[in-house]
Amino acid sequence: MNCLKKLLSICILICIGSSCQPTLEKRLPNIVVVFTDDQGYGDLGSFGATDFSTSNLDKLATEGMRFTHFYAGQAVCSASRAALMTGCYPNRIGITGALFPWSKIGINAQETTIAEMLKPMGYATGAIGKWHLGHQEPFLPLQHGFDEYFGIPYSNDMWPVEFDGKAVDSTHRKFRYPPLPLIEGNETLEHITSLDHQDQLTTRYTEKAVDFIKRHQAEPFFLYLPHTMAHVPLGVSDKFRGKSKQGLYGDVIMEIDWSVGQIMATLDQLNLTENTLVIFVSDNGPWLNFGNHGGSTGGLREGKGTTYEGGQRIPCVMRWPSVIPAGTVNNQLASTMDLLPTLANLTGATLPTNRIDGLDITSLIKGNTTSSPRETLYYYYHQNDLEAVRHQQWKLVFPHVTTQSYRKVLPGNDGWPGPYNKDTTGLALYNLRRDPGEAYDVKALYPEKVDLLQKIAAEARKDLGDNLVGIKGENVRKSGAL
């Protein structure tokens, strides 16, 4: 009998140490995507930021991978979010620019979001923060694959309040805006009516995010955390107000960094770090005409609302200790559109049946920094204007007028915007390896590159169209509409 007991004990120990016990390797990875608003390429310590600290984000980069050529799908709010959520150029799916509280469109139910792709795999899905893909109920997160939602439906400056926090009267242009709703699920929980309320958003989102992770620690989860900040009007809690040398903008970024730190600490406490892919990325470049309330492009040209590098190239850091080599820098071209197909590969999820534009960059995040899944990128803006194309290190800019240029005008200050300028460009070729600031047009030196990029542009125009030259695309779909 004693021999039988010993044999049984040995069998149990073997079973526990082998296939009878679920392991991190066999469990699907948790996924956390932190998506900030208007945070510039130069607004992380690991990307050269000064006068404020991003210690948690720097730790994330030290333990993971920093992408130096990572791009938004378009350099503006709604379009950028549409690209991330669906893996498509936003103009392909009928979402361009920024949606407003009176917009009658939103993300189409026929499009597949990351959340909808992951749900059949058993993922718990939560969205916390700024949605901006349609504020009416058919377009809100719960109708597009998310189990939970808490946040605001569009930008925090879309409210009947001036930049100084005072309510506007009926003569003001912002009077047409409704009160800014804070939504939980599909219902308005309360209205954000003051700058003091906005000061609490980052903390409230973070508390919700930590709670989501704790409640779903026993199952794979997808947490999408699109912060309202650092979009103006800037809001920061008392615990970070006045903490940076850069002023209020630096304080806001430090609180976002704290938020990431809270998530990292929670993952550590729950022993989830090794099996969690954390992605930190911004939606577009900084809103430069807000001066000291705007961010930094790190020396790139122009900013938000333009197709120059400062508008569309964004900081990105990823960490997944069991997969991503620590302390690596990736200089290959990649985009937020590439997240959906990459997550499909990493989880075994089924790709959407609709055509997408994202490419699987699994090879990059696993450390093959010489592979190049993406070699081309289209820079669309406005309704459907193809303003530039990139192939490898070469970028061809087409003749167009930048209506939101920040050049040759003074920015605003202390929360108030300065004016925009109109900047007209002709055809120009830039070598982004040597000239990331797009200062030297070298088309006369490399006519063969111009020819190559013109061919790539012709393919883009046939596929997606181009209002600048009057071409309608063959493969565009419609947004959702009421």
What name is given to the CATH topology of the largest domain? Alkaline Phosphatase, subunit A
The tally of domains stands at 2
Shape type = globular
**Poorly predicted sequence stretches spanning 5 or more consecutive residues:** 1-25
The largest pleated sheet is described as:
11 strands, mixed
- Tell me the CATH superfamily of the largest domain: Alkaline Phosphatase, subunit A
CATH class of the largest domain: Alpha Beta
Rounded to the nearest angstrom, the distance between the terminal CA atoms is: 74 Å
Feature tags:
482 residues, 2 domains, 24% helix, 21 strands, Alkaline Phosphatase, subunit A, eleven-stranded mixed β-sheet, Arylsulfatase, C-terminal domain, four-stranded antiparallel β-sheet, alpha/beta, globular
Structure description:
Helix 6 (201-215) runs parallel beside helix 7. 51% of the residues are buried. The radius of gyration is 23 Å and the shape is globular. Helix content is 24%, strand content 21%. Strands 1, 2, 4, 5, 6, 7, 8, 9, 10, 11 and 12 form an eleven-stranded mixed beta sheet that branches. It contains eleven helices and 21 strands. By secondary structure, the protein is α/β, with parallel strands linked by helices. The chain has helices spanning 2-16, 55-62, 77-86, 114-118, 195-199, 201-215, 248-269, 309-312, 339-347, 362-365, 447-464, and strands at 30-36, 65-71, 105-106, 124-128, 148-151, 180-184, 187-192, 221-226, 276-282, 313-319, 328-330, 334-335, 376-381, 385-391, 394-397, 400-405, 421-425, 428-431, 465-466, 471-472, 480-481. The longest helix has 22 residues, at 248-269. The protein has two domains: 30-374, Alkaline Phosphatase, subunit A (3-Layer(aba) Sandwich), CATH 3.40.720.10; 378-481, 2-Layer Sandwich (Arylsulfatase, C-terminal domain), CATH 3.30.1120.10.
